[in-house]
Specification:
The protein has 204 residues and is mainly α. The chain is built from 10 helices and no strands.
Amino acid sequence: MIVQALAFYVFAAIAIASGVMVIAQRNPVHSVLFLILTFFNAAALFLLMGAEFLAMILIVVYVGAVAVLFLFVVMMLDINFAELRQGFLQYLPIGALVGLILLVELLAVFGAWVVAPEAGPARLRPMPSPSDITNTHALGQILYTDYVYLFQASGLILLVAMIGAIVLTLRQRDGVRRQSISVQNARRRADAVEVVKVPTRGGV
C-alpha cells in the first residue's frame, strides 16, 4: 500500500506540473510535448486504479493520434506567434469576462450536485469478482446496455461534427486541378493511348 500511495503522489504531481507547463510554455512544440507527458502520467494513474483499458485507450488515442497530430501541425505551420500576441491585451477583458461566466456556471453546477436516489441501492448490490469479469467486459457491458442510446447519440454528434468540418474547409479555388471520376470513367482508349510507328533508325 505504501508503494501504491507513493506512486500515486509521484504520478499525480508530475501530471499537475506538466499540465501547468502546457499553458506556461512560450514554444508551442514544448507545450505539446508536456501534454504528451501529462497523458502518460494520467494513464499511469488509471493503471493504479485498475482501469487498464482506459489507460491503453489514453495512450493509443490521445498520445498516438491526437497529440502527435498537434505536434505535426504546430511544426509544419509557419505561424508568427509574436504577431498573434500583439492583440492579447485588447481581448483580455472579454476573455476574463467569459472565464468569469464559466466559473460561475461551474460553481452553480457543483453547488446543485445531488446524489441520485437509485445510487444507494445500486451501491449495495453484490459486485462480481474481478476474476469472473474483466475490466473491458464490464465497461462494454455498461456502455452497450445502460447507456447504449447515449453512446449512439455521441457517435452521431461526432459524425455531424466531422461532416461540418469537411464542408466548412472545402473551398472551390481557381487554378487547382481536381479529380473528376465521371470524366475518367468515360475516357476511351483512343483518347488516352496513341500508337506511333517509328521507322528503323528514325528515332530521336
